[in-house]
Amino acid sequence: MRIGLLTEGGYPYVGGEGGVWCDRLVRGLDRHEFDVYAFSTGQAQEDAGWVELPPQVQRVRTAPLWVAEEDGVVHGRRARRRFTEHYSELAAALCTAAEPGTAQQPGTAQRRGTAAEPGTAQKPGTAEADRFANALHGLAELARDEGGLVAALRSEQAVRALERACRAPGARRAAREARVPDLLTVADHLERALRPLSLDWYEEDGLGAVDLCHAASGGIAALPGLLARHFFGVPLVVTEYGVRLRTHYLTRPDASPAVRSLLAAFHGLLTAETYRAASYLVPGNAHARRWQERCGADRAKLRTIHPGLDATPFARVGEDRRPEDREKDEEREKQEKQEHAGPHTLVWLGRVEPAKDLVSLLHAFAEVRAAEPGTRLRIVGRPSGPEGEAYLGHCRALAAQLFPDEADGPHAVGRNPVSFEELGGPGAETTADVHAGGAVTVLSSVVEGFPVGLIEAMFCGRATVSTDVGAVVEVIGGTGLVVPPRNPRALAEACVSLLRDPERRARLGAAAHARALELFSVEQNVAAFRGLYLETVARTPVRRPVLDGAGDPQPFAAPAEAHVPGHWTEPTPRAVPTWAVETPEPVTETVR
User: Fold this and answer.
1) In the 8-state DSSP scheme, what is residue 13?
2) 174: which of 153, 413, 467, 566 lies 20 to 30 Å off by Cα?
3) Structure confidence at residue 251 (pLDDT)
């Protein structure tokens, strides 16, 4: 099978978002061929280069989203008229789509106090969705016929079409209030989002040659898959470990209401078209699945596949924590006592930023120390940007205030029970070493997506205490303790209960280890996608023209009904007599 892998800011670039799981997927499916179509998000990413590609990657084609490459295309009068028509239709769909502020998001109530039905909250109207899809495909066909749309999308013609749509009767109030700076901002955003239309990827030897397109995320990354389906009928699979539409709703807080409204409408309509056209949608967890349903996804298309992590680096620690290896466990704990960690050590590992709520963790640890005076806390991680640097400084100051340096005697050097470390330092060379140096792994976040750090702790056979955010409960199951976020007392009580009960820690750690191997390993991830690929191609095969021996199209190879959606388009196997296998008789004559 030949698969077109579509990425944005990820694979095959070094350190790209989602690049790790894409690399593991490609390497795991070594019997398939992959063509990678990647969007880069900056010059620094392109300068960093690519990861080492396995032999099953046959071709890599890249395009920058951060800069518009001039294509030198000058449209004639007819092409300009077609562009104005399709762009005006797209703008009209944005201006008349349902107001994003009135659509319900997960966790919110409707104005009348009734809960929103799953699958209807963010779903645009059918008329607006069809209008948007027709306009998008019309622009794509124009770009294919003329060689590009770069200049047209940046022209005054596009801004005027957007202005007319905002001033037209039936436009939403937020759109009618758009001023010239707002129109320029929205037109600039649409130009960047529609740059994939001008690429030369949509040819018979490009995306038209693959059997299946797999978008590693929603949004712009899935746009080439939409066009491949439109031009060639190639089925599309979309994986979303984080829902892009949700991200767009939460960004641009400083923009004007008109800009936020129009851009939310664009991304909402693009998401709706992606969900409609995709053969299958693959959320990475139940939290993302709920968002997809609220954004209009058909439940029949959803297939949850958890991200796969490589368990090999954690195998030594995870195996040592099983009950049958108690002697090794005790020996290691004795060694840890001589170093900086021990059986009464709590471990936190991750990026240092306000969303991780280390302040609540430090206050909880103060109560833990009151109950178990010998307990220590290791905070291992680097700050995330300038905001993370400031937050780390605040946490250091709070730790120094809550826990003055302790000393065994009047002439001994004091030591703070809270240590701030970075991954790669002494005793924290690897993630496995960090988890091996503690008895309980703690997660104190107030906002969390898919908690990869918890899965790593589970691979190491560690008992965990976590806050109930994101996909934590889905990951942990019954193998750890879960407490409400921003509740230091509950967090402290859970930690103390595990520190005082080594046998319970061992039982939970063994159960966590088994659960991680069953649900979150690379092997299960690759096997799930292998089955999904086969199911997709079996249900929605690419309908390419049937050629005869001379390479000419064979007439009547497919019935006319096959071009009309309906129950009759489902493939039905035909029994072939054994006598006709070796010397088949032609049933039609080749038209010359």
Assistant:
1) B
2) 153
3) 60
Counts for the chain of helices (H) and strands (E), in that order = 22, 12
pLDDT in tens, 271-300: 999 999 999 999 988 888 988 898 889 999
**Cis peptide bond N-terminal to 253, omega within 30:** no
Share of the chain above pLDDT 70, in %: 80
Q: Cβ neighbours of residue 542 under 8 Å, at least 6 residues apart? A: 211, 232, 233, 234, 235
Maximum pairwise Cα distance, the chain: 104
Q: Are strands 236-240 and 280-283 parallel, antiparallel or unpaired?
A: parallel
> Does the pLDDT of residue 568 top 60, yes or no?
no
Report the predicted TM-score, pTM, of the whole model to 2 decimal places.
0.77
Q: Which structure tokens are listed for 208?
A: 């038209």
Inter-residue contact 223 to 199 (CB < 8 Å): no
Which residue in 320, 248, 256, 259 sits closest to 291, CA to CA?
Answer: 248
What is the amino acid identity at position 336? E
CB atoms within 10 A of CB 145: 9
- Tell which residue, 334, 338, 383, has the closest CA to residue 358: 383
Three-state secondary structure along 68-104? CCCCCCCCCHHHHHHHHHHHHHHHHHHHHCCCHHHCC
The dihedral formed by the CA atoms of 170, 174, 177 and 178, expressed in degrees to the nearest 10: -100
Query: Coil, helix or strand for 3?
Result: strand
